[in-house]
Amino acid sequence: MDVRQSPGCLQLVHKHTIQCGEDMEEKKKTVIEVRDAKKVYRMGQEKIKAVDGVSFTVEEGEFCCLLGTSGSGKSTLLNLMAGIEKLTKGEIIIKGKSIGKMSENKLAKFRQDNLGFVFQSYNLIGSMTALENVEFPLVFKRVPAKKRRKLAVEMLKNVGLKGRMQHKPKEMSGGQQQRVGIARAFVARPAIVFADEPTGNLDSKTTIEVMDMLKAMARQNNQTIVMVTHDRKLTEYADKIINILDGKIESIEIQANSKEGKFPEYEEPEAAEKKSEKSSKSVKDKKKNKDKDSKSDKKDAAITAPGDRQADTDQPQSAGGFDLAYETEKLEAAAQKLIDEEKAAKLAEQSPPEDMAEEIKDGFTELTKENKSGL
User: Fold this and answer.
1) Which of 165, 177, 179, 346 could form a disulfide with 159 if both were Cys (CB 3.0 to 4.6 A apart)?
2) How many whole angstroms separate alpha carbon 314 and alpha carbon 237?
3) Of 105, 167, 157, 103, whose CA–CA distance to 132 is shortest?
4) Architecture of the domain made up of 58-86+97-287+345-369
5) In the chain, where are the structural domains located?
6) What is the pLDDT of residues 41-66, one digit of tens each?
7) pLDDT tens column, 311-348
8) How confident is the model at residue 28 (pLDDT cuts 50, 70, 90)?
C-alpha cells in the first residue's frame, strides 16, 4: 500500500482512511499480519459473514484498537487472531508463523509462549488468591516455584496490589480483579496481549486506571496490544485504530501522539475497601443502563454460541455449550497436580515428568471461549 504522509494529512487508500501524524516514524517490525480474513457462520440456510475480507498489519510495540459497535465483528476478529476460532478463508500470520496451519498442540504451545489475554469478566479462579492467580500461567510453563512467586509478587506490586496478594476474587472490587487479570496476562512477558473489552464491567474512573496500566505495562517492555472496544474515548490510548463495521474495515487511523499510561500507586487495604464498595455500586448502576442493549447482546450470543451454529469451514467445530465452571475446576485441579508433582520431584531430587504437560493443552484457550458472547 503506497501511502504518502504530510503534516495532518488524510488520505483514502484502497477504501481505508489513513490519518497521518506530523512525523513519520521509522518502520517497525510487523508482528501480526491479517490477509483477507473471512469468517462465515451458518444458521440454518442463512450465511452470516462475521468477518468479511479483512486485511491489515500490527507492528511490534503498537497499541492497536479494534473499534466497533455490538455485532460489528470485532470480537470475532480478535478470536481469529488469537487462534481461538478457525478462519473460513484467508490467513493470519503472527511472528512469522501462520497460525491456521498449526496443529492444536502446536497452537496451544505458541499461545503459551507468545500471547497473553485480558478478559472483560476477569476470569479469575475463585478458590485462588490474587498471587496464585497471577502465578497460574507460569505453572504451565514449568517455571520453578520460587521464581514464579517472585515474578507474581513483582507484577502485583506494579499494578498497585501489594496489600491484596492473599485476597481471593470475591474479596476484591471489579477494578482490583481486573488489575489481577492484567498482572496475570503480563507476568510471562508475552510478545502480544489480546484484550477483549477489558473495561466493559468497570466504572469510568476505574476504566481510566486500567487503561493507564495496560498502556504503561506494554510500553515498559515494548509489548504489542490488540484491544477490542466499542468506546471511542478509549481509542485515545491507541497508536492505530481499526474501525470495524458489518465485518469489514471501514477505516484505519494512525495516531502519532496517543495518550501515554502510568502505573498506579500502592493502595492501602482500608482505602481499597471503601473504593470496592463505591465501585460495586457504580457497576450496578452501569449494568442497569445496559439493559436496553440486551436484545442486541442476545443476538450476538446466538451467532457465536458453538452449539447454535456451524462455521462454513473444513475445520471441525465444537458441539454443545461451554461450561466455564467445569473447565475452571479442571484447570485448577490440573495446576494443583503439576504443583504436587513438582514438590514430589524436588523431594526425590529429579525433574517433574515431561508427560504431565501433555495432559494440559492450554487452559486460557478454554477460558477465552466464555468471552465470545459478542462479535
Assistant:
1) 179
2) 38
3) 167
4) 3-Layer(aba) Sandwich (3.40)
5) 58-86+97-287+345-369
6) 998 889 999 999 999 999 999 999 99
7) 444 333 333 334 455 556 666 666 766 766 666 665 55
8) confident
CB 50 within 8 A of CB 40: yes
Helix axes 174-186, 204-220, angle to 10 degrees: 10
Residue 153: is its pLDDT beyond 70?
yes
What cell does 16 get?
481505508
